[in-house]
Amino acid sequence: MHLEIEKISKSYGNEEVIKDLSLQLEANKTLSILGKSGCGKTTMLKIIAGLTKPDNGSIKMAGKDISDLSPEKRGIVYLYQEDLLFPHLNVFENIAFGLRIRKENEADINRKVNEMLLFLELEKQAQRMPHELSGGQRQRVSFGRAIIINPSILLLDEPFGSLDSGTRQRMQHLFKDMADKFQITSLLVTHDLKEAILMGDQIGFMKKGRLQVYNSRDEFINDPQTGVQSELHFWEGLKNEKTEQL
Ligand SMILES: Nc1ncnc2c1ncn2[C@@H]1O[C@H](COP(=O)(O)OP(=O)(O)OP(=O)(O)O)[C@@H](O)[C@H]1O
Hints:
AAA+_ATPase; binds adenosine-5'-triphosphate; ABC transporter ATP-binding protein; ATP-binding; four-stranded antiparallel sheet; cell membrane; Rossmann fold; ion transport; alpha/beta
């Protein structure tokens, strides 16, 4: 198992924000987690990234306990909605940044960044500065920057939240292609039911700090608390009304 979280909890004052949270995630899979605002999704991601210390519980990666490792040593990338690009660096250099920090040689950097630019369909924008890009293009650059360093786990916090629905859909498909090609293991949190179903190999539902993971899409769809059933009834009701009017 690539990621194993066992019985993590976290309180702020009297508020228990994460309650006995456990999950397991295989390598090269995506776990999407659906939950309402305030249910503890971001806190969970911060704990996995090492930015927040849990009160109890353990985190293992590839069998090794990483609970006491600093964020830098975990090799995890945490990408959130407002993730900013470096404004003074062009697209190429934004994507190359992590490789330069790791002191990779120039030929490797050029090869990897050019491959990534091609994949992201950003080769024509390579020399542009972030302020000269659209929201969707900026988003693609931030994915490229995150994925090029081959993170052990990619944590995505509402990554498509600020995009219009067409761009959002394109980005969801692009991310799925990238996850396959670059063999990414990721956790993605979202408020969006369809996004959770579309993106996840496994789907989790978080409510008031408790996480339930469903191992199949059917299990998730059939549980009334996930909201899929009421969504289906809504559309069915609308369809029947229309048919009656005809
Ligand atoms: N540093 C902190 N100090 C005190 N309380 C906090 C802190 N961080 C989060 N909380 C509280 O923990 C709860 C969960 O917050 P969290 O940000 O994890 O929710 P979320 O599910 O990510 O919400 P959203 O979808 O709105 O981002 C909230 O009630 C929040 O007020």
